[in-house]
């Protein structure tokens, strides 16, 4: 009679071996220092994104015009203003009190002021030429209907020498998020 075959392994050892084979094998993808580096990099990117989110970029409207002395010649209370001629597209964005930087063409000096008046109605190029006695370069710049914006620069005593000069100006009409300047993001946050 033949003897039954007996295994040389214990039954409990075989059971443990089979259980370990059934378990999934976990791969170790990264060592702990690399994982720490990725967490620091993620926190850095989130911080940079938060900083970029908080930065506002000013939006400005550019225009050309001339420097005028306002007020009667005999009165002591005259002031110097810049009269700008802007396209009709910008009328909704312009309001009294907005900050402006006026650059006088002949001297390249920057003057700071505020918007004093925004005319509600548009004027034609011929009306602008006759009303403001425009000649030369500025008369040729105004080619279509425009609105006039008056920017208060300062007292006439110090600015009187600039009267009649051509100027360029930037009026800050608002600000927007830095992300809105990136392609694709401007549609997310609107115009």
The CATH superfamily of the largest domain appears as Efflux pump adaptor protein, beta barrel domain
User: Could you name the CATH topology of the largest domain?
Assistant: Elongation Factor Tu (Ef-tu), domain 3
Gyration radius (Cα, Å) is: 36 Å
Low-confidence runs (pLDDT<50, min 5 residues)?
Answer: none
| Topology order in helix (H) and strand (E) letters | HHEEEEHHEHEH
Number of helices: 6
Largest sheet: 6 strands, antiparallel, barrel
- CATH architecture level-2 label of the largest domain: Beta Barrel
In whole angstroms, how far apart are the ends?
96 Å
Helix content: 25-40%
CATH class of the largest domain: Mainly Beta
Tell me the number of strands: 6
Strand order of the largest sheet: 1-2-5-4-3-6
What number is the mean pLDDT?
81
Look at the helices and sheets and give the structural class.
Answer: alpha+beta
* Coarse morphology: rod-shaped
Our estimate of the beta-strand percent is 25-35%
Write up this protein.
It is a single chain. This protein is 29% helix and 32% strand. It is α+β, with helices and mostly antiparallel strands and 191 residues long. The chain folds into two domains: 44 residues; 115 residues, Elongation Factor Tu (Ef-tu), domain 3, CATH 2.40.30.170. A six-stranded antiparallel beta barrel has the order 1-2-5-4-3-6. The longest helix is centred in the first third of the chain and has 23 residues. The termini are far apart. The mean pLDDT is 81.
Short structural summary:
The protein is of the alpha+beta class and about 190 residues long. It has helices spanning about 10-20, 30-55, 125-130, 135-140, 155-160, 185-190; strands spanning about 55-70, 80-85, 100-105, 110-120, 145-155, 165-175.
